[in-house]
Amino acid sequence: MLKSIYVYRFLKMGMCVQRHKEKGSFCHILSKEYYGHHNRSPSMYKKDKYGSLGVDVHKTGIASFKRIIDELFPEAFCPILKHPLDPSKGIILHEDGAGSKPIVSYLLYKETGDPRHFRGLARDVVAMNVDDVVCVGATPLAISDYIALNPFTLKKEELLGALAEGFSEVLRELRSVGSDLCFCGGETAELPDIIRTFDISCTVYAEVPLKYVITGSRISPGDIIVGIRSGGKSSMESFENSGLMCNGITLARHVLLSGEYPKKYPEIMCPEVKGYTGRFRLDSYIEELGMTVGEALISPTRIYMPLVLEILRRAEVKALIHNTGGGLTKCLRVGRGVAYIKDTLPEPDPIFLLIQREGKVDWREMYQVFNMGVGMEVVVDKENLNQVIDVCEKFGVGAQPIGRCERSSEGNSLLINSKWGIFSY
Amino acid sequence: MLKSIYVYRFLKMGMCVQRHKEKGSFCHILSKEYYGHHNRSPSMYKKDKYGSLGVDVHKTGIASFKRIIDELFPEAFCPILKHPLDPSKGIILHEDGAGSKPIVSYLLYKETGDPRHFRGLARDVVAMNVDDVVCVGATPLAISDYIALNPFTLKKEELLGALAEGFSEVLRELRSVGSDLCFCGGETAELPDIIRTFDISCTVYAEVPLKYVITGSRISPGDIIVGIRSGGKSSMESFENSGLMCNGITLARHVLLSGEYPKKYPEIMCPEVKGYTGRFRLDSYIEELGMTVGEALISPTRIYMPLVLEILRRAEVKALIHNTGGGLTKCLRVGRGVAYIKDTLPEPDPIFLLIQREGKVDWREMYQVFNMGVGMEVVVDKENLNQVIDVCEKFGVGAQPIGRCERSSEGNSLLINSKWGIFSY
């Protein structure tokens, strides 16, 4: 029985979502009436896998917050405000977390007793923040962390020790390639009555001279979208990435991992959510991944910042898109009146194929939740394409044109043409 | 049975804590050997009330993080780093949250169905951040929020709508008194497998010309500590404050509220923590408080910023201390070799007397957890005392000398001489 219906205008993405709450599970219906130019029936959105796990990729409800931000360029990847003391500069204060990735680290820590499994989360949260702000051409200057934890489920000093090592390592690495980013400390909150295990996020402060801001407003028909790989191993990295980054982890955990984990560690799950439905253990080695399921799930997010800054020095860039929450549909928030057409996407990394197959997840939803192997997108005109590819080659990271931009008469739109179907968003 | 012992050096506070984990409950033993000049036996710390609820006021474990912060003035109230692009400036990127206060708002929301009970939390987290950074003489320029929630226990859009209104209101208020603080947005994370109800925190970015930094290093013997009231109603406020601010809420909830709440809403409690032991309902009107228990618990934190900026314009200030986590012992982190002597403290606001009486909390612990009616301390020499009192009078906030500073031969120390005993920290 339908209990209540709310209608929200999704200001930024120019679409409207009707939200149905039904017996504790969430589903999303996009009304065609509001959704105008897209040829999809509402029933296509009736139920998504991620919604049933309590995660809303459509980000309903954020409109009330958008209204109170005095952003200079609403079409930019993240909000840029005027520096209160220097009108020639834009400032960005950006927050992002590791999603539910801490739960995977927690399970590995519990199973092995080794707190080093927490370490990679520092890289994750740094990546999630600095790579968002470089998308508007800004320079990250300062970063701080927020850790909320339940001291009854883990040893605070083991968690903090491992994370401090992780932050120290990643900041040293960034400094070695010329970054000025400084670590300003943060807050550790013990909240056993709120937090089941632990949560980690970061905030980055960045500045950009207003004349150098990248907003996506200069995207023109015919511009190329270059996709930069999220998986593999760059020349700056000492480990193989699964490509997963920090988004879709709740979905990945639930469809891959065995029900034994929530049984053994009830603190890793909300009682309203159905148990894990997967058939793997954390240490199950999967031939096609070339690593264990646990390794694939906690594989740290690539930091694109050094590569992006090099691209910005060598090419004229019209837009940058960090494919985090929203996956390959993240571009919808950038630019104005842009039809993104992605029709030459690379084969997704094996982790995405595994998640899709095991969870029987709709391909449409896969593209909305995961980066599908493309962690960063760069929009350039044809003349600048080779410079972008060259820089990626120098860093040992795969890159290729994945599509183009056209004009859209109404809001932004995205068409994905893949071997699994044609999807429009 | 003692399972494990860890020894941590508490770098900032110059003390060392041995941490004993015993059957899931935490207690703290301060070893005299490491704790030098204080005349206390380890047994005095064996068990504190707050520790048994999973909150460690001694902040063990943060040492690993302190090591990786390149702070310019380790004796200052919060870490100040050199601006990477302007060596004449210090920057602060500071994070703090509302503690477990969201649980009280959540209960009021559940009991009444009114999401406006979430609104005051915006004021709380703004206060917790801006009033920390003004303690080093810095100007807060930008603020962002982080909200992590469980969509199965509350309606996201109701929470976000109320909080957005709250942020909007408090920022408008601050702008009306000349603040440049801008709201830069934030992150909303749906993490039902990590978060039982919701958690809220903010990050503030602030700058200070290095020549104007207030570090506490100029504190001299004989300087006066002026205490500024946390309770009551200032000329800027439209409501009566209980004085509680955001710290000690876990302890206050557990000793005041009735066991019916966790029974009715099991999502508000960690299973490892004992149920509520109090005898009040949220709507119990308490004569001595002049408000209900619920109102006293969610009473928003006073924002001292406008008052403090006015004091800084009119007086030469040697130190400012925002009495948040650590309560009246927070001063221990400021300055070097300072013996703080607080012997003329005001009568604590009724909420603190109620918590102490109902929870039979040691007075020693009360001073370590709560601000006890003094939300902000200002250290000045005798010549500047009247200017501070005058400004507080102008804002309609009670203020009085609460003690003095002397020299300490070893680290900082604090002596509280109250009608309930003499306590040294």
Your description of this structure?
The structure is a homodimer. By secondary structure, chain A is α+β, with helices and mostly antiparallel strands. The first copy, chain A, has two domains: about 1-45; about 45-240 and about 300-425, PurM-like, N-terminal domain (60s Ribosomal Protein L30, Chain: A, 2-Layer Sandwich). The first copy, chain A, has 13 helices and 17 strands. A seven-stranded mixed β-sheet of chain A has the order 12-14-9-15-13-16-17. Chain A has a five-stranded mixed β-sheet with strand order 4-5-8-6-7. The longest helix of chain A has 21 residues, at about 155-175. Chain A is globular and about 55 Å long. The first copy, chain A, starts with a strand and ends with a strand.
Q: Major sheet of chain A, described briefly?
A: 7 strands, mixed
CATH class of the largest domain in chain A equals Alpha Beta
- Rg for CA atoms of chain A: 21 Å
Biggest interface between protein chains, with counts per chain? A-B, 93 and 93 residues
Oligomer: homodimer
The string of secondary-structure elements of chain A, in order, is EEEHHHEEHHEHEEEHHEEHHEEHHEHEEE
Please indicate the percent range of residues of chain A in DSSP E strands (runs of 2 or more): 25-35%
CATH topology heading of the largest domain in chain A = 60s Ribosomal Protein L30, Chain: A
CATH architecture tag of the largest domain in chain A: 2-Layer Sandwich
State the distance separating the first and last CA atoms of chain A.
28 Å
| Average pLDDT reading of chain A | 88
- Give the structural class of chain A: alpha+beta
How many separate domains of chain A? 2
